[in-house]
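Q: Got a minute? One more chain.
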Amino acid sequence: MKAVVLSAPGPVENLQIRQLPIPEPESGWVRIKVAAFGLNRSELHTRLGLAEGVTSPRVLGIECVGIVDAIPDGDLQLGQQVAAMMGGMGRTFDGGYAEYTVVPRTSVIPYHSDLPWEVLAAIPETFQTANGSLTTGLDLKAGQTLLIRGGTSALGLVAAALAKDIGARVLSTTRRADRRDGLGSAHHVVGAPSSTTCAPPRANGAASAAPIRSASAGSSISTQGMASASSTGWHSRTELFCDAATSSSTSRP
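A: Always. Here it is, folded:
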């Protein structure tokens, strides 16, 4: 199989595409035929030697999506769509930057979706980070107010959608007026380039500008930015990924 291997921490030249034997899963592990994987800053940290517990050479990648290719025991069927993330992937054992990867069953989330693989690959770690930050990190509750700085980033958009689902009031910031319309999940959009304003939407789609202190008067700002990523339990990760993966009826090419 082809895999992207980090020979040792250092420059990008230490990442090389190599031919490796297809790994065999032991009891309690699952082999996934990788259809797509996400790129994360975590892998940059690993390549630079900033991650702990990493041995070289190592196939990087802390997440992937694909299908079950082999499982010595357990509850998954061959061909089952799955996502895998974290739990040591790409650090203490080889990760998703390969055509096949072997991961612990506890890191595998089964699901069914018609979304394209490249879309599914963008879901696991992004949703995990946002969900963990809002729940384990902030313990966000319905009726609280959340301020998300950098609301048009992938993490910001996901956090806004999840926070609204919790029942929180969402304020999102952007420094670019041309991205304002992309903040549809936020209740209020904050931060024009020339001034800090809040524009609560009206029923007819128009908006009126008001100082941010007026928009937040009488409410509490839960955070001024996303908290660092926090782990969530396996069951909550399963529900989160399955909800995201089945939220569209788009057919896979």
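A: The two ends are 24 Å apart (CA to CA).
Q: Perfect, thanks.
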